[in-house]
Amino acid sequence: MAKIDLIATCSFGLEALVARELKDLGYKDQIVENGKVTFTADLGAICRSNLWLRTADRVRLKVGEFKATTFDDLFEQTKALPWPEIIPPDAAFPVDGKSVQSTLFSISDSQAIVKKAVVESMKNRYKTSWFKEDGPLYRIEISILRDIATLTIDTSGAGLHKRGYRQSGSGAPLRETLAAALVFIARWQPGTALIDPFCGSGTIPIEAALIGQNIAPGMNRNFAAEDWPTIPKSLWHEARRETHDLLSSNQILDLSGTDINP
User: Fold this and answer.
1) What span, in angstroms and rounded, lies between the C-alpha atoms of 19 and 155?
2) What per-residue confidence (pLDDT) applies to 168?
3) Which CATH superfamily is domain 176-257 in?
4) Pairwise CA distance, residues 63 & 84, whole Å
5) pTM score > 0.90 for this model?
6) Which residues of 49-77 are buried (b: 16+ CB within 10 A; e: fewer)?
7) Which residues contact 34 (CB under 8 A, 6 or more apart)?
8) Of 111, 185, 207, 230, which is the most buried if we count CB atoms within 10 A?
């Protein structure tokens, strides 16, 4: 796979921030749409974008996109996609789904059709009639918007807001991706003070600290795609080494957060 299409999903309103983060990572061939940024990159981008994106929810590998108004359309065009080139024979590949303003409004039926089509495609390649699905996770999503079906595979696993540093949270925690977005929107710089008088569990100061010292938000967690045999382990090692090389641990920060003790 020389070039692949990836989709960084995000909360509505944060698309421009995600696009800017991707450009800073060197991925400038992108399309910005509501709730997502699609970008073209090499295989290593799966590793780097998962490790570095602060405001995105997930990174998905785009397998295909087409118009589908009947279940026959959905089945045949899904089956024609190169699933065996991506998914190994022992992989677990559950199917999630969503449909908005589309003829194929039944999510459960669409999920079942996609699952069957992927199985048929893989049966032709691997010459077997049964898949144990006890290997690495390749979670497929069928998303149908105004009759346009987009098929993706989740590379992240747990959502990217799960940084790996939080052991417990408050009753109404601010999601880490949104906290990072607030820091970006405020145009805070490491040389200035940041004071959060209503910090709750401290998400905004923590995210500011990660930004201020250029700590990759995903450096202390794992991702679903790390188990994929289709991605060389060397790419993950190189990407993780980059997160350590670019640390600014000597950067002095003036951060404070306070809140009432319930």
Assistant:
1) 18
2) 66
3) Vaccinia Virus protein VP39 (3.40.50.150)
4) 11
5) yes
6) bbbbbbbbbbbbbbbebbebeebebbbeb
7) 12, 15
8) 207
